[in-house]
Design goal:
It is built from seven helices and seven strands. It is of the alpha/beta class and 245 residues long. The longest helix has 29 residues, at 71-99. It is elongated, with a radius of gyration of 30 Å.
Length: 245
């Protein structure tokens, strides 16, 4: 049997419970982490400008003079992230359009609203589709604030132009279905995507449910139903909202 006592001699005994400092984040690294956290959580820059957050930053770095990520730096990082997102959306839409043999495949959702003061209007646009791997995809494409006109042709033009500016694709050729709210102006916008099919049933069902719940529409009707017990047809009252909730 080999004696291992000699090989163990001279080795320093291990200190039990000793703490080892493996990594200290730099000011730049913490700034990047802060930006990633704010962007992923959808929070504004002033979230990290409080005194308590500054103290946390100083404790993390061990530097009493450590500063918070500057607002201008955060905006630069945010622009870079958004530019990367636009490139990813462009690549995805072009790949799916090619996989669909350049047939329309997108379902466009659009809607507009006005702020409570009646002075600021906004338009939101998103797209959904089933990709070539049979996965459901949904993309938030646009949020335009301060639209000068509610005319359907102007809204349609602003959607198409803005998508080209940001993503470099002609969305008009990709739209197969359109979904809007139940207002006539929104439906006019959908009609301007000439080759698309309006599929507003989702919004109409929601609208009907709200009207039934508020008592603005008759909530029941008399129908004929087959009774398997008596093997006859009978008339009964049926409530619409039983099918919705």
């Amino acid at each position: 049997m080999r004696d291992i006592s000699d090989s163990s001699e001279g080795s320093a005994p291990k200190r039990r419970g000793a703490q080892q400092k493996l990594w200290t984040p730099t000011q730049r690294e913490i700034g990047v982490f802060m930006a990633q956290w704010l962007i992923s959580a959808g929070m504004p820059h002033h979230t990290i400008t409080s005194e308590s957050f500054k103290l946390l930053n100083q404790r993390l770095t061990g530097d009493s003079g450590a500063t918070i990520l500057a607002a201008s730096t955060f905006r630069d990082l945010l622009r870079a992230v958004f530019a990367n997102f636009c490139d990813m959306v462009k690549d995805l839409l072009e790949q799916e359009f090619k996989a669909a043999h350049e047939y329309p495949f997108l379902d466009i959702h659009h809607g507009g609203w006005t702020a409570a003061n009646g002075k600021i209007s906004a338009m939101g646009t998103s797209a959904s589709f089933i990709d070539r791997f049979w996965r459901y995809q949904e993309l938030a494409l646009l949020l335009m604030v301060g639209n000068a006109s509610h005319v359907s042709s102007a809204v349609h033009q602003s959607i198409c132009t803005r998508v080209i500016d940001l993503y470099g694709v002609d969305i008009n050729t990709m739209v197969q279905f359109t979904i809007s709210d139940t207002t006539s102006s929104a439906r006019k916008v959908s009609k301007l995507f000439e080759d698309s099919v309006q599929t507003d049933c989702t919004m109409h069902i929601l609208n009907l449910c709200l009207q039934y719940a508020m008592g603005h529409r008759e909530n029941k009707e008399t129908v004929e139903a087959y009774d398997p017990v008596t093997n006859t047809r009978k008339r009964e009252k049926r409530y619409y909202t039983d099918f919705f909730f």
